[in-house]
Amino acid sequence: MTGGFLDGDVFRGLAFRILVFLTLALLPFGLIAVFQTREIARQANSNSELSLLALTDQAASAERSIFQEAFGAAEALSALTQLYASDARACSSFLSAYRRAVGLYSFISYLPPDGIVRCSSAGGSYDFSDAPGFARELENPRRQITANPSGEISAEPVLVLSQPFFTRAGFAGFITMSVPLSVFSAGMATPLDGMPAHLVTFNADGKIVRSDRTDDVTKVDLPADKSLQALVGQESVVFQSTNTIGEARIYAVVPVVPDVAYAMSIWRPDEMEESLQQSIGLSLALPVIMWLASLVVAFWSLNRLAVRHIKKLGRQMRHFAFNRRVPRTTLGQGVPRELAEIQNSFVRMADSIVRDEAALEDTLRDKNILLKEVHHRVKNNLQLISSIMNMQIRRAESDDARQVLKRLQERILSLATVHKNLYQTENLDRVDAGKLLEEIIGELLAMGLSASAGVRVTQHYASIQMDADDAAPLTLMVSEALTNALKYLGEPESGGPARLDITFEMSAENTACFRIANSTAGAQGSAGTGLGTQLISAFTRQLNGTVEVGYQQQEHWLEVRFPLRERVKGTYDF
Fold it and tell me: Which residue in 70, 211, 289, 384 has a CA-CA distance of 20 to 30 Å to 538?
């Protein structure tokens, strides 16, 4: 009963879209009531959040003033300390005088990249190169605030503010300002009504640097499902969560110094707000119930009258697309007239498509038969020409004439073999080049080498599919190369039988390689410039390939590399 709505992509279905429009038609006043209630709740929630953020910002105002003043002073001091870069004692005296004049800081120093402080308000030298986190600060110099509960130099708990500065040469170090925690306590404003129950300040690394409660209380009141690090980089935000012991809390976070320090206030939920949320939920329940009841009735009617019939028609179309079977059954009883007309039109169209495809298959079959017949007759004619030339060879009076006719006969037989493979293969567009070359070379070796020649022949042919248009120049090139190899074949001076090595394989991705090597007697001959060499170069250019010839250790070799054309969809014999 629910087929067609809950199956597939629900949100793009006909039933879902109609139900959406029906919702707009049946529940205008209910939607208005819902929107008004949500607007009131949103406005109340927004006002509450703004109030919490304002109170948090007010509570952190003293910290903000101290931080901004410290960073501003550090920027000014970074330029002044460069004047004393060569005199550590004068630099320390200057910082000490500044610290006493301001009275806000317990320790000021210039921390160079090597980590050894030579210029500070306390004088002397301090090594911070092995301090935790110092190496990480050098990798990413930025403003930073950290807490130092022990305060070894200041002799009291402090917050350390680090201000990086740069010169034309690059990063020059940090100006550090140590502010005692007692300064923050003295600078806090008098508590007002509505101030947060708990205020925490944390840095950009998500570490707490100051809290108005003890450490144990602070850890208990932190949000259980969100880390302080996750709040870094955000604008002012308010969210509700539970603390580490499961008590509900409201948290408000504001930036004290953007990307450096943040203040988070912690509040206890007000009972009046909970009552407001309950009343809003009750006001939303009634229109939602009425809306759901209307949708159930509309959905049942729509599925009964339209969707299930459309799904059945869709299945018939998919079955026809997969197996080309024309549907023989109707959609059933009670089908709307419009859907019945659509099915009748589909059946007529499907029957027409089946007939047209059958006619097309007959045409393709006839075409393939004719092409194979053409290749067969061309092969027969070439073999007939070869037979006539064989008669001419026997009647020739000179050896030169017989050699010329024999070379021409070999080329014709190579073409005949190509056409023979084309009409014997199922795919008329591509041939197995390895099988083709093996057959042609076998015939040429039978004609050019006697059984008693004593030549050791090594052959290897990989099965490589190539375009039929490239088969003719390939076979003619191989025929010329083999003829030249047989012409200069000889036993090496080092002893042993004459050798002939033939290889056809893939040398790289989409690149084929034909290599033929033969042993020779005596020194290397001159570079070939005859007709055979010219034909090899010409056929290689037709293949868009390259040819290399070499001689080493009484062996002459020829290597041809050419790219294979991209495979196209074949035309098969039906």
Answer: 384
CA atoms within 13 A of residue 31's CA, in its CB half-sphere: 9
Among 321, 331, 330, CA closest to 354: 321
Q: Model-level pTM greater than 0.70? A: no
Q: Is domain 62-145+158-177 annotated with CATH 3.30.420.10?
A: no
The CA distance from 466 to 65, in Å, is 80
237-240 contact pairs (CB < 8 A, 24+): 238/48, 238/49, 238/52, 238/53, 240/269
Superfamily covering domain 368-563: Histidine kinase-like ATPase, C-terminal domain (3.30.565.10)
What are the tokens at 556?
């002459």
The mean per-residue pLDDT over the stretch 331-357 comes to 80
**Has residue 481 got a pLDDT over 60?**
yes
Which two structure tokens, joined as six digits, stand for 221? 């009141």
Average confidence (pLDDT) over 548-554:
85
Q: Give tens-digit pLDDT for 92-115.
A: 888 888 888 888 888 888 888 888
Using pLDDT thresholds of 50, 70 and 90, give the confidence band for residue 546. Answer: very high
Q: 168-227 pLDDT, tens per residue?
A: 878 888 888 888 888 877 655 444 455 677 888 898 888 888 888 777 777 888 888 888
Residue 231 DSSP class: G
User: Alpha helices of 396-494 — where are they, by DSSP H?
Assistant: 399-424, 433-448, 468-487
Q: Which helix (H) or strand (E) holds 465?
A: strand 465-467
The SS3 assignment for 160 reads: strand
- Find tokens 């591509």 and name the residue: 430
Query: Which ranges constitute the DSSP H helices of 488-523?
Result: none
Q: Return the CATH number of 190-269, one of 3.80.10.10, 3.30.450.20, 3.30.360.10, 3.30.360.20.
A: 3.30.450.20
| Residue 56, number of CB atoms within 10 A of its CB | 26
User: Among candidates 174, 172, 187, 163, which has minimal Cα distance to 260?
Assistant: 163
